[in-house]
Structure formats: structure tokens, C-alpha cells
Amino acid sequence: MARTNLEDLFQLKCLLNNLDIKLAARVENGVKQLVALVLKTGDIVLYYTYGELPSVVRRIPWFTGKTKEVQAICFDNTATWLLTVSLDGSLYILPALSLVDRKQKVDCKWSLNDVTHFPKHSQAPESKPQCIVWWQTLDCNQNALVGYENGAIGLISLTDGRCLGVCSVSEDISKLYLCQDNSLDCVSLLICGVSGQQWRLILEQHSTGYVWPPENNSISQESMASRLQSLKQMGVDKFVSFKQRLSEARGGQRRDSQTSDSTSESSHSERSEYSHSGPELLPHLCDTFFAPQYARNRYLFSAFYKPTSLLTIHGVDIESAPLFVHRLLPNVGCLLLTDRFIYCVSEDSRTLSVVSSQLSECHLEGDAEFNTESLITQFSLEKDEKILNIFKLTDITFVHDRRHKEEKRKEKEKSLNLPKSVNDVNMAKPKIDTCIVISNCAIYRLIVKASPIRKFVEYVIEESDLEKAEKIAIVFSLNLQQLLENCGDILISNGSFHQGLIMYKQAKSHLLKRVLKLAICGDSQALLKFVHLCLSVSKVDMSIPTKIHMGNLAVMAFIEEILRFGGEKRIENTKNFMNFLKHEEFYDQVLAVNVACQAGQWNVVSLLAKSRGLQPEVVAAISQIIHSASVHHEYTYNFLLTLSEPCLTQSLLIFPSCSQLLLNFIRANIDSFPVYVLQRLIFQLDPSQPAALPLIGRVFQNRRNSTSMESMIESLEVENFDKGSTIVKEFIETFIVVLICLVSKTNEFGYNIDLLEKIDPPEMPSQQSFIKKMPSAQPLGCGFEHAAIIRNGQVYSMGVASSGCLGFGPLLIQSSPPRIVHTLSELKVNAISVSCGRKHTLALTDYGIYCWGSNTLGQLGLGQEVHESPYPQVISALSTVKIVDVAAGQYHSIALSAIGQVYTWGWGIHGQLGHGSCDNQYIPKLLSLPDIIVQIAAGHAHSLVLTKDGKLFGFGSNAFGQLESNNLEIMKTSHPIPVFLLPDIYMPLEKISSAYFHNIAVRVDQEVYTWGASPQEMRLSQSKQSQKGTDSGISKLSEPWKATMHIYSGSIQKPIEQVAAGFRHTAVLHNGKLLIGKNLDEELAPPKISEKDMGIFNQRFIHVGCGSDYTMAVDHSGKVLAWGSYSMAQTLTGKSSEDESRRPDGKLVIFKNTKRVIRLPHGFHINCDSPPVEVPSLPSMAITFTPLNHQTILSKTTPVSIHSLENKLTSNIHYIDSDYSFKYGPKTLHYVLETYHGLYDTETILSKCLQMKNYQAASKIALLEGHYSDSFSFQLMAFKEHCTKFKLNFEIFNSPVVKDKSCDSIIDSNRQSEIDVTPTNNKITNSPARILSSSSSLDSLKQWTDEAENQGGRESPCSMSEFGEMKQTMAQFLSSIKSESSPPISNISKLISYSKPSDGELNKDNEIYAHIKDENTKEIVKQAFHLIEFYIQKIHMSENHILMQNILLKSIEFWLANNLPVSVLENILLKNMDKYFYPLSILLFCKNFNNNLGEEFVKKDVDEKDKTSANFLKEFSTKFCLQLCYMVLENVNKA
């Protein structure tokens, strides 16, 4: 492998040069660094640095004289004092820190202005000093340890210069090292001899109180020699022990640092007892050299074996196994160990090598070669230059940089921006300890030229050299994954998304973290592409919460894309967003609704409401938008479409707090809505639709029973329901307002006289006879991973919340314990049966079938637009059908009607719908089957129906023998075919059950049979048969699952109550006992049914249900028990699927013939041996005297749809995706006003009708309220508007009509000539003959007779004899009245009786109409005739004479003001004279009649002032007046 070059990382920088250096010493304390140099001239040079400040150099001249020549130097630990020893053994202390930095505070132990001198003590060894170290004891005593040429070591006090102790070794001393352990308990001295031997002297041990030298130390030279010899021998023994330990540690085994430290320190403590007396010889492995080191925040010993260049790193106890082993390059003289590097000086002292600690690490085998990759760089000095010392240079910038990075990190967290360059990378800088190199002529500092992080980023991004980058990460102990992630951040920030994602993958970043970083970068397109890739690739293993987070980010990204771009780009983005929302399962749907509403994407909101079933969330979001709008602003057309979405009906009724805002908004802005929106609102607010029936129907029922004793008993229910009745009334009121506006915009107002009468709904088709024996109610339904149970009419569901199958709404949790389905509870419906499929649920209630869950294959029957519904919705297509049973297959559904018809819908690829095709059916469709069906059952891909004669039919898949053998060669059938159960195919069946792949049937003789098998069972059976066939030579395999198998026998006296089928098990409920069958030996044999031998199973069970791998049962007390596999716990208690990691693995099965391996999931067998679990959180069963059963459904009447009044409906309306192209006219409006009278505010509706000038509707409202006068006035206003649209012609022929002696049947020719009916003048032209006296009605009659005589009988063409006789009789009548004598009533009566119409006058109406030539005029006259007659009939029934008088007044005024023929009016009045003769006579004849009895709705344009109603008399004929007088007088006579 080629070497990766990193030479450009380091640089050897010269600090001082042109020096002739003899000795050097260095110390650092925090940010203070001091270097002392002794030149060959004898002078001392101090080089001082303080942090990042400029360095200070100070040259100190030294004493002249040979004996004063400096032999060794050292610093104290505080970097304050410099200690020197001269050739004569004298000690000098220089205030080094004060000389270079006067600002620093110094402890004035010695002189700050001069050198402190300690002459050689008399007890000091007489030898040349070679080296010196400063020792500050744990008690803060300041001492100097001086090594001499003869091997002696002297301890000199720096307080008074006394020699405190002396010891010696066997050879000259070259170097002294002061060592201490990590606990700071023990301080020792490492003594190096000139030959390479090393000793260790214990100076101080704090735990034992030992300090060298002991106070009674009087060791002679002889004893010292013998002691050294014994120590030497001891060292050899320990060397053998050390070698053995090295052998044991081979194989790369390492001890933990803390363990090694504790071990070494303990062993050192044990050894201290015998090592206190003098130096201990260290094991000498030929050329092994020990040196104290400080690295990795601890004190260590390095042992370098020169022949093999093997470096071992030990703890304080050098005899312990090495902590680390490194292979160095050859010819190394000395070395310096740091955290990440080993700085090596060659033997010739001319080369400095930088070796990586990480890369040079090896094992103890000894055969490993030096890793050239570990050599980072080398620096060679000039020929005449040699390295004297190397000192560790601690990286003081690390602490400062860490603080800076922390502050920067907090700022970045606030800004939430990705780094755009390496300068923005928020990563801690690694601590890099370098070295100070002292040569014989210069001072050098090894520096890092570039930040390792920067170089890493450059190698990755600019050079794409991952090999170099990885090496840098290893060398500097960088977090490789974090660095690669940062590189990905930089790439993504600069638009290189593909490369950035590759970096994230290299960094093994969490998938969600990658998506979040893409989201932070702000490029929505890249984010969407990556999210789509992650969610669509099945191989990507993600948890469900991660998927939901990704989906939420995609939602936000789509919204951002839609808002950012316009035109075609916006259309495309919106289309993609809607497609994502419709088909993607994992995202927070509530978040999507709120975000779409806030962004104004109403078409998206409509999709979420319709496709994802989020109607409550949409209603709440829209109401929030309306509520937050402080001022009125224009709402877009799309907003109105969303507001009028028909699927929101149910939510509007059950969420009154939100819907009230919406309904108020609709009523306030209805006038500005377009027609199409009004048509949609009609569908949404239709109170006759199935979604609204539960609440509105109960309000109707409560209103009808409000005065009955039964309502008093149910007062509590009514009281609770009043909270919802308010919104129901507002709902209906809003609907009527919308209908009024729609009718006014889509219909030209004409006058329809038929609207006076009550509108009759269309006739309902005759109901067929119901089946005699209704199927049993199923209060317990078990699906694949969820279940539902009916308790007290309410549905409780539990289990895995997949696609909203629990009916609780959109859930972010994986599963749920039993909870009530609140939507059904709020609708006040009572559930009767429930059935669960794979991801959907059906509930049969007293108001139809409610469904919820997944609808991807149409299994809900709500239409193709609906993808899923997390809330229950009614199947409107079956609203007019009385359904008595439902069955949910895994992906399809079946319903049975009360007349024995079957409806199927959903998944149909295997023909399981039975309609002759394999298409999916999204709306329930009637199954074409002539037989009457009494039971239904649905499996995974097949269906069964049982006729009333006990015959069984099936359709769908037969791949696993679901349809029995029947000699059916095909694998499926899409038409119902008979299924025969052997051995007796003629025996009728009584019960059937199916859920997955096998079926169960109970014959009338109570024998139980089963057939079919699951795919796993079939494969296992085939595998075993194939193996047996190979051994025996049989080639054809049998298919036992396709034949019926007898599994249980009941008795006719105690019939079997229920059977249920699971995935691989069967349950039978017989005489209250529960029996379960299963295959224990994995063979497709008949399932064995065994009674549970458990105490609790002695109870009586009443219902049972089977899921995929669990069973549930209800006992007589209402307790629900369940048992089964691991998934059963999820189903019942709502455990998260994250517990799957702790779920035991399933069983592996290998097929020998195909070598195929399948895993049978854990709990594949139903564990009946363990005790069942009681389902929690269910209420107790209530005792009721009116149990819910099918009679509740059969007793309800089907309401009339308002759409059927003026439209011809061929089938039930589908409210979700209807085309809304229905006609709504006045007939529909009047029917609604009549039907829902009392459930709306009449004042509000009346005002709206008057505003829209719909006077007939206003009249209907007044009529329903009993305000006949107002109603009649509104009718007259409507009729007047109608009259003005036509050119009326009341032309009557002047030729006399010959009648048998009748003077009153012909209209006065002169009066005819006075009528002027033209388009421009509709006023009555009054002739002098018509101006009658107002003094008295009787005076008017007299005046009329006189005028008639003078004018020659204008009134009638009767003979003069008759006229004269009438005049004479009238004169007698008047005179008798004036003389206050009895009138000749008999004569008048006789005269008028003689004048009654003959038989030829019975058709007088038709004769009058015949004289009107214009057809429009004739029709209007007829309508006016009918209008007045209708109200006269209504008021006559009330017996209110004042009201009748008011109606008559308005009728006469209207009739005359509109120039209608008076003869027709007379005919109306004469026809019903006996009903109102008294109020009419007062109206026409009374002198003081005041016309202010009622409100005057019709104003007349007349010239006369103060004209009274008595003036009407002149318009009527004499015949009419006489007949009126006759009726009055005759009734007065009777009185």
C-alpha cells in the first residue's frame, strides 16, 4: 500500500539561533513557559513566553572562574526560580520569572534582586556534580537532589543549604528524573547511570509518612554495597517475573488504565517496606531504557528496547503488563510521549521524527514491522547541529479554543444553519501537544501548520481523498463520523446534495438526521426527493416514529414549494403534494391540515377531508381561520369549495363549538356565494341525508314526544341531548337559508297555486317481506391485529392503530387499549353488530352501517375518492336498505338486508365480490342471486352465503380449498357456486363462519365441519407429503384441505350457539362452553377441539371471536377474556410495536425438497395452556328492558330525500363524490319549510324570504305559524308580481246570454264598457251611476232603484213586469224598515227564492271564463279564484269573524285594484256565502265601517279622499247585494 503523506501538517519553527548552547532546562506552568540556556561562554539565557504574548529573551552574565562554571540547571514547578549547581558544588537560585516578567506575583522565598547562594555543605559528596532536580516535598519543603559523577546522590536543603542525606549507586550518574504516581501519594527518583542501568529511589510516601532519608539513617559504605548487591539480585528475579508477565500479555490484551494504576500502586505500596532504605535497581533488559512520561492525563513510564525499537508504556509499576505497545522506527536515541504523538530523536541527535501513537501501536509478538504510515514527518538538522534536549509543549490553545467553540456552538444552535465552510464547523479542536527542541545552537518549536479539521475537510471536499482524511482522523483521534457529517453539511450548504448524502452515509448518520439537515439547508426539492426515496424503498429499515418525522418534513417542504413558485410549477407541486397526502401513511395528519389551512391551500384541505377522512380536523381548522380573521376579507373560490365540502356534515353536527362559527359565516355571506357553492352546501347541510339522520331524527322524536308522559320518563336523555339540539336547529336554519338563495338564483319566480297545499313526498316503493329468522347479532369482532366490542350500545375498539381502524381519529401511537369510539357516541347511535377486517371495521347500528379504517381497496364502501377514514362514517349507498348483518373480510365487506339480499364491496381480484368480475368495488353493489340469504361470511379472499333452505354458496379464491373440492379445477370463481359438504350433501346447514382461509359450518343436526387451510399449513403438508412420496415412490400429492372434515358433534336438544374461525384455529361455543381447536403437530389434519380445563372456563360464555392468533370471548357477566400470542398483548393493552425487539424470534422451518426456509412467527400457535387475560377498561353491562336487536332497525322508517322531490333518482345519492347537478325549486323549499317547521327561527327565515322576494315561501311560513292574514298578504304580493308579467285582457261579449228568467246572471253591459284594461292603465273608471251614497247601505239601494228607473233598466235585461214587481217590493221593504214595522220578509224571500239559478247556471264559472279570450288572463283569474277560496276555507275553520272580515277586505281591494272581473269575485263570494255573510255584510253595508282592521298591503291610487270600504258596494251587482241581504235577514229571522 502506498504511503499516505502528511508531511505538510507540521513545521519546525526556529525561535532563537546563533547560540552556543551547553545546557538547557524548560518548565511550563499554565500559560507561562520558561526556557533556560547555559551557553558555553558561561552566560545564562532565559526565553519566556506568556500565552499568545510576544516572547521575552533575557541574557544573564555569569560568574567568571573555573569553579563557578554551571554544571546543571533546573526549574521549580511554579516556573519561578531557576536552580543551578556549579563545578564546586555550590547552589544558586535565580529569580527567573522576575527577571523576564516583573508583573507576575512571586512568593518571596528567596531574593528577587540577586542570586541566592548556598555553598557546598561539608557532608556533600566530594565529586563533580552531573545533574540536579528540584524536589518540593508534600509538606512544601524545598530541596535539591544532586547527582554526582561517582554515583553519589545528595539531598540539599534549599532553605539553609544543609546536606540532608546521601546515597549512591554503583556507577556514575548521568541523569535524574523526579517521578510521582497518579494519586500523588508517592514521589520517587529515577536514577540513570552512564552505562544504561537505572535505579529508583523512594523519596516520599504520604500514606505511610515515609520521607527519605530516614532520621536514623546511618548507612555505612559496606552495608550500602551489600544492600546494592541484594537489590541487584532482587532486580534480576523481578526481571524474570516481568518477562513472564509480558508473555502472558501477548495477543494484544490490554489492561484498563485505572486497573493498571491501582495494581501498580498497590504493588508499589507493598514493595515500599523493603525499598525505603536505598535505590532499587530496575530490570535491565540489555538496551531497555525507562523514562517517566506524562500523557493521557496521567503519569506513565516508557520502556524503550532499542534492538527491536519496541516501546512499551506502563503505569507506575513498571513490572506490570504494558498498557500500550508501539513499534518505532530504528535508531531512536530518546523519545517524548504525548497523547497522540511520539517525538523521537535519532541516535546521532540530528533527526526529529514525529510518529503517530495510534498508527504505531502493535502487539507484543515482536514480529511486527514498523508501520511506515505511522511516521508523519521528519526534520533533519544541519551537519554541525545536534539535538540536546526535547521538552513537551502543552497545547494551551485547547482550553481557549474549547470555550470559543462552545460559545460558537450556542450561537449556531440559535441560528440553526449548517456550516458553509470549514470555518463554520462546530467541532472541538483536538489537543495537540508538540515539543520544544533545543539543539547546540538554536531553539526550535514544533508547530502544527494547519488545523487537522481543516486539512480533513480539504482532503474530503477539494481533493476527494478519503484515505488521507481517514488517516488524519486516526492520527489526531478525531471523530471520523462527525467530521464526515460536517463535510456533508458543507457540501449540502453549497448545493452538492448527492455528494453530501454520500458523506452522511459514510458517516453512518441516522436517516432522520440526514433528512433534517436537508430541511435546514432550505432546498425543498432535494428534501422531497430524498424523503420519497427513503419512504418508497422497502429495504430501508426505519422505525415508525422516524417515518412520521420524515413525512412531516415532506409536508412542510411541499407547502414551502407551493408558496414559493407560481404558474405551472405550483400546479405540479400541488399535484405531487396531494398525491403524497393521499397515498402516504406516515405523517402527522393534523399537522398537515393546519399547515395547509394556514397556507391557504384549500384544495389540499379538501383532499385531506375527503380522502383521509379528517373532517373534524378540517372543521376545527376552518373555524380557527374564520375566528382569527379580525376584519372581513375576500375568501377565495377554493376556500368556499372547502367550506362547502359535503363530507363535513357529520363533523358539523358533533362539534358544535366549531360548526357554529362556520354556519354563522355561511348565513352572513350567503348572498355572495356562487351557484355551484350553493349546490354543494345543499348536499352538505341536507338534513335528510344519512349522515345527519341520527341527531336530526332524535330531535324530531323529542319534539313529537315533548308533551307525552314518555318524554317525562326520558327527561334525562332529552336534557343531555339539548346541547346538540341547538346546533341541529342552526344546521337546519342554515340549510333553509342556502336553499332560499339557491332557488332565487336558479328559478324565475312564477306563481304556483299548487304550493298553497301541503307538499306530498314521492311515494316510497313497497317493502318486501322480511326474512323470518334474523341472523344473530355479533357484539364482538376480532380482526388481524385489532378488535371491537359492543357494550351498552357503544363500540369500544382496541389493538394496533393501523390506517385508522380503531376509529379514534389520526393517532401517532402504535396501538391503544380499549377506548370508546366517540364519534358513534356523539351521534347517539346504538350499535348492534360489529365486524373487523385487516385494517377496517364495520358497525351495524340503528341508523345504518358505519365504517372506519383503510379504504385503499374500497372495503369501506365510501367511494374511490376516500383513501381511509379514521372516524366512523355512514355508508350512504345503503341508507335506504334495512341491513341486518355485516361481515368484514380481510379487504372486502358483505352486508345482508332484511329481505335476504346481499351487497358486497371492496377487494375483488379473486372474484370474492361475486359480481362476475375481478374488479374492486368502491360502492356496495347488490349481488345477483335469486335465493333468499339468511347468513353471510367473509374470508381473506372468498365469501360464503347461506340460503333460507340451508344451501351454501361461495365465490372467490379456491387456492387453499376455501370452496371445497366440488370438482372445481379453477383457482377462483367470480360467480356464486354451490358448496357441498360431504358426506351428506343434502343436509341443510344452520351456521357458517370464515375469516381467513378455512371455513366452519354447522349442519341442522349440529355436526360441525371444516374445510380449507392457511398457506403455511398447506406448504408444510406438501413438504411432508413430498418427502414421503420421494421415499415411497408416490408422485401425486393429496390435497386433504380441499375436503370437508368433521371436527365436533353437538346435540339437537342443546344446539351449538356459535362458531368462529381464526388464522389457524377454530372456536366452538356450545351450551355456554368454549372449545378451541388447533394443529399441534403442524400437519393439515382435522383440528382437534378440546375443552379448556381451567377454572374460569366453567363460566357460561355467550359470544366468541377469533383473530389472527388470538381468541376473545364474553361470558354471561360481561367480562371479556382473551388469550393467544404476543400480538394479543398489543391488541388488548396497546403496547408499542417498539417492543418487537424484545419479542422472541419465531421458529424456522426448512423444506427439504425445495430448501426453502420460512419463519413461523412466535405465538403462531394459539397458546391455550396459559390463563386468559381480562380485557381492561370496559364498562359493565347495563340492565335494560329494551334490548337492541334487529327489530330496532326494522321499526325505523326510511326518510324522504329532499333531492327526490324535483329529481328522478335511480339509486341512492353518493354524498362524497356527487356531481351536484340536481334541481331545487319552490316545491323543494316548501316541503322543507313544512317538514322541519319548528326546528328553525321563523323570523330569520321569513326575513330571508322577503329579502329574496320569495313571497310564496314567506306566505307558507306565516301559514305554518297560523298567521293567516300575513300569509294571505304575502300571497297577494306574489300574485300581484305574477300578474304584472302578463298583458291581461278581460274582454267580455256584450251579447246577452239567454237564461230562464234570470236577471242577475248577465254582467251589466254598461259596467262592462266602463272597465278599461290596458297595459298602461289598470285603474277603475267610475261612472256617475257607480258613485253611491255613503250614508246608508239601504239608501244606496233606494238610490240604485231610482236611477235604474230613470235610466231604463240598465242593470238587467229582464222583463219590465218582473222589474217593476221587484222595485215595488223593494219600496215596500224600505218603507217598512223606516216605519220600524216588521218587514215583508216573506215577500222578499219569495222573490229571491224565485230568482235562484236554474240547472243551466251550475256551470256559471265556465261560462264566465269562456268569455275571457286571453288564456293567460283566464289562468290568472282561475288562480285568483282558487287563492281566495283556499284562505276562506282555512279561516272558516278558525271561526274568527274579524279575521274573515280582514281577509275579505284584502280580497276585494286586491281584486278591484288589479281589474279582475267582479263577476268572478261575486261567484266566489256567493259560492261560500254561508261562511262569511255576516262579516261581508258589515264590510259592505255598515256606515261606520273602519278599514283599519287589518294592515293595508295593497295601496290604491284613487282621487277621492277619505274613501271607506263601503264604496266597494258600487262594484257589485244587484243580484249579489240582494242575495247578501237575503242571507242576513234570513239568519236574523232565525235568531
From TrEMBL:
PANTHER family the UniProt entry points to: ANKYRIN REPEAT-CONTAINING PROTEIN, REGULATOR OF CHROMOSOME CONDENSATION
Identification of the protein by name: Uncharacterized protein LOC108744563
InterPro entries: RCC1-like_dom, RCC1/BLIP-II, Reg_chr_condens, Ub_ligase/GEF_domain, WD40/YVTN_repeat-like_dom_sf, WD40_repeat_dom_sf
UniProt keyword Repeat present: yes
Record's keyword terms, sorted: Repeat
Positions of the RCC1-like domain: 768-1068
Basic and acidic residues bias: start-end ranges: 246-258
Disordered: annotated segments: 246-279
Organism: Agrilus planipennis (Emerald ash borer)
RCC repeat spans: 793-847, 847-899, 900-949, 950-1005
Domain of life, per lineage: Eukaryota
One of the Pfam families matching this protein, by short name: WD40_RLD
Presence of the UniProt keyword Glycosyltransferase in the record: no
